[in-house]
Amino acid sequence: MSPMFLGFAALLVFFGGLRLLELVVSQRNWRRHQEERRERLREPLFVWMVLLHGSLFVVLPLEFFLGQPAFGGPLSMAAGVVLVVALVLRLWTLTTMGRSWNVRVVYGEDYPIVSNGPFRFIRHPNYLVVILELLALPLLFHLYLSAVWLTCLNAAVLFFRIRNEEAVLFQNPSWVAEMANKPRFFPRFR
């Protein structure tokens, strides 16, 4: 096996492990939310999110084995930097949200509004992480079709997911006061 394949496989295992860990943490947090009588938004779109994230582990290996993967040069370097930034932002976001974090949209009258950490700058740092990961991970190995496919599918899923999530969040005056004037993904620099 080539070193490039071993690196590719290790990254897929790493990101797969992260996704599984997130699901475990999310489920644990959801049990706590249930005890506090919080609700979870019914999201038919959630299945599409799961399929999108699962397809990462099918689409990338397919293109890796059927295409012309490569590693190195400015593109791999830039993609690697973006992946590291995304990982740091993910850890910052999840630790900032703590027990409030969930893969589902959870709400309630007394639900705490998180406005520190990366939320000081943008409304949806975890969605930004996903955007960056789904673009950079394929580009690290020059898997262009996967980068386009995953990015386009993610854009469609996030369009509807964020619209549904913010419809709930905008009903909370505390969230509106703290977050409504912040950009969704990219901070404004003045």
UniProtKB/TrEMBL annotation:
<dbReference type="Pfam" id="PF04140">
    <property type="entry name" value="ICMT"/>
</dbReference>
<keyword id="KW-0812">Transmembrane</keyword>
<feature type="transmembrane region" description="Helical">
    <location>
        <begin position="45"/>
        <end position="65"/>
    </location>
</feature>
<feature type="transmembrane region" description="Helical">
    <location>
        <begin position="6"/>
        <end position="25"/>
    </location>
</feature>
<dbReference type="InterPro" id="IPR052527">
    <property type="entry name" value="Metal_cation-efflux_comp"/>
</dbReference>
<protein>
    <recommendedName>
        <fullName>Isoprenylcysteine carboxyl methyltransferase</fullName>
    </recommendedName>
</protein>
<feature type="transmembrane region" description="Helical">
    <location>
        <begin position="127"/>
        <end position="150"/>
    </location>
</feature>
<keyword id="KW-1133">Transmembrane helix</keyword>
<dbReference type="InterPro" id="IPR007269">
    <property type="entry name" value="ICMT_MeTrfase"/>
</dbReference>
<keyword id="KW-0472">Membrane</keyword>
<dbReference type="GO" id="GO:0004671">
    <property type="term" value="F:protein C-terminal S-isoprenylcysteine carboxyl O-methyltransferase activity"/>
</dbReference>
<dbReference type="GO" id="GO:0016020">
    <property type="term" value="C:membrane"/>
</dbReference>
<feature type="transmembrane region" description="Helical">
    <location>
        <begin position="71"/>
        <end position="92"/>
    </location>
</feature>
